[in-house]
Amino acid sequence: MSTNTSSAEAEKAPANSRGRVIVASLVGTSIEFYDFYVYATAAVLVFPVLFFPNAEGVTALLSSFAVFGVAFIARPLGSIVFGHFGDKVGRKGTLVASLLTMGIATFLIGCLPTANMDGWTFWAPALLVVMRFAQGLALGGEWSGAALLATENAPANKRAIYGTFPQLGAPIGFILANGLFLILSFNLAEEQFMSWGWRIPFLASAVMVIIGLYVRLKLVETPAFQKVVDSGEVSKLPLAAAFKFSWRPMIAGTFIMLATYVLFYLMTTFTLSYGTAAKSEEEAAAKAEASGKAFDPDTFAAGLGYARNDFLIMLIVGVVFFGIFTMVAGPLAEKYGRRKTLLWVTAAIFVFGFTFDPLFGGGFVGTMALLIIGFTLMGLTFGPMGAVLPELFPTNVRYTGSAIAYNVSSILGAAVAPFIAVALWQAADGSPWLVGIYLSSMAILTFIALWVTRETKDVDYVNHSS
């Protein structure tokens, strides 16, 4: 049966309107990624001082990144838990649960005591780890559900375009999170920001979660999953079925996402660290003295010396290109195929890795060029993923399979990327050239995974069950 015929059959069932699908997938992931990026920004700007006060310089930053990585360890577990219910109970209820989990965890981070408060030296970082774990658990189920909501409601020959709707949540969430941090930084003194201002972005997520829940509760189940229910093909144990029948797509999907993850977290977390780090030991020592901390030259790695607010603005400009080219990627993947589009983009990411040192060394123009090019490539590689990963799997294990691939890749890519990047930065005596080589190496692995994977553009998305 053709894709057009299967889509026509699916449309006979009660369906969500196009506007509702766009808003629910876009708003939900925007909120989820906002919550996630609020932590990512705070991991660089705030948490090294407030939750690891006994560590110094890069050591404190690495401690903060270690907690940042806890969420990525939790994400595969979240993909199993939410994937099970998404494939067994339905997409709608699972998406509501993931949003609530993320929202509550993020709000509670804004309420945590800090390690410099009496009696909280141990418990403050420990509670931060717990909340960060909950964030990862939620995001482990969010992305796949949002991608399925969009693509399983898509008209024929528009899955890749609809699949970009949830992907846009990443740049939108990033801009909202960092934009709010910027507003607070401009309007609060440094002491006020470090004392209580940093809490506001976390607490503000409660309002956004309420809006997201309102939109998602109005959804009906996707036509593709409803067909599985009506035909009695719902998997009793989606995880077991996915590993039995779809283990090859899970491995392929994991490595297809690898370069995307590494690129994104280098472009955001690492560049913010490198861009705002002091240019010299003298400058770093002066900053440490001003903040009342000792300076350890053994942990020092030179950076670009930008002011925090200036570099955040530069990042936000770059992320605008991320959003634009995420939308561009959908029509390209629909016209030329997912595999061909991603092969070309991955090859470009490989080349881009070799430009880190010369572009970062090119002053403001070079740094801005690096951010714009990097985020443009990020949009082009991230945009098609909302379609290509779910298309690798049959309907009755699609939530579980795509979620596991997406989130296991987050461990191999995003969880370790900031940590590896900082280590390579130090090993190269303040130069980013090894960080670029790291990115190019990951692009090779993704290229191989794409090369050995079939094109998924014309799969029968509604009737495809294991």
From TrEMBL:
It is a multi-pass membrane protein. It is found in: Cell membrane. Pfam families: Sugar_tr (PF00083). Coiled coil: none annotated. The chain crosses the membrane at residues 36-55, 61-83, 95-115, 121-139, 160-184, 196-217, 245-267, 311-330, 342-361, 367-392, 404-427, 433-452. GO terms for cellular component: plasma membrane. GO terms for molecular function: symporter activity. Keywords: Cell membrane, Membrane, Symport, Transmembrane, Transmembrane helix, Transport. Residues 21-458 form the Major facilitator superfamily (MFS) profile domain. PANTHER family: INNER MEMBRANE METABOLITE TRANSPORT PROTEIN YHJE, SHIKIMATE TRANSPORTER. May be a proton symporter involved in the uptake of osmolytes such as proline and glycine betaine. Belongs to the major facilitator superfamily. Metabolite:H+ Symporter (MHS) family (TC 2.A.1.6) family. This is Putative proline/betaine transporter.
